[in-house]
Amino acid sequence: MNVNSLLTSIDSFHLSVDEIGAKERAASLASRSIKKNSKVQAIKLAASMIDLTTLEGKDTEGKVLAMCHKAVKPIKGNYDFPHVAAVCVYPNLVKVAKKVLDGSGVKVASVATGFPGGQMPLKLKIEEVKLVVKNGADEVDMVISRGEFLDGNYKYVFDEISAVKDACGEAHLKVILETGELETFDNVRKASIIAMLAGADFIKTSTGKVQPAATLPVTLVMLEAIRDFYNETGKIIGMKPAGGIRTTKDAIAYLCLVKETLGDTWLSPNYFRIGASTLLNDLLMQFQKEQTGFYQSADYFSND
Known about the structure:
Mean pLDDT: 94
CATH architecture: Alpha-Beta Barrel
Number of helices: 12
Order of helices and strands: HHHEHEHEHEHHEHEHEHEH
């Protein structure tokens, strides 16, 4: 796609966002009440959507192995509680995760393209993507070049995402916008449209390394971009807020936002994920509270 065609495609979507209105809508939609007898189902649904994540410099093979076992069976002996959607790790730990998760239903996701900064040549980014896919990654979480985007080099960003998509082969591509660095809601919407036009299977808010990370208003802007893209093209694109989503209350607020903006089709791990490292424990604590009437002690569940 040449520059003029890309700009025409981008401009075909209404790009101006009412920031105050978006914040008000997000607060209103997220505050929708959920009946008590539906809370257990909401907890299980949210758990099934988690990309259980560890992206720290001190990550070890042992930590990833323990996390993978927890991802497959969050509550030992409880076969009714779902496994999470995926485990997300650095490229060097993909083989470790794949060994445990192969055949479990839990996907292996790997960050790539110079995560989190994305400051490396495209050739090296493509090599990294091909490596993680070869090593067993089912999903790739890439970062866009925010500097190029903010300089207005939209064709560069589009071509980069397209090249990474090609390198993914059969693996799904999640495109991280790093919304905390995009400065405006208009930019968030524009970056969302570019990512979807370039072939993203999911668009994702954040790396979790920049603040603010996921927020309800920013997520709403991205969900509305997905809705408008679907209405224009018929293509269903997934959404992944990541960073700072820690409690059951937070997770349910995001589920309400998705349901009210996109509908029930997106209330599935196929189209909605939550990137988190500590959320699962809170969901498990709340689940046990609903089942037994009391909270387990803080150390009842293993640390993620």
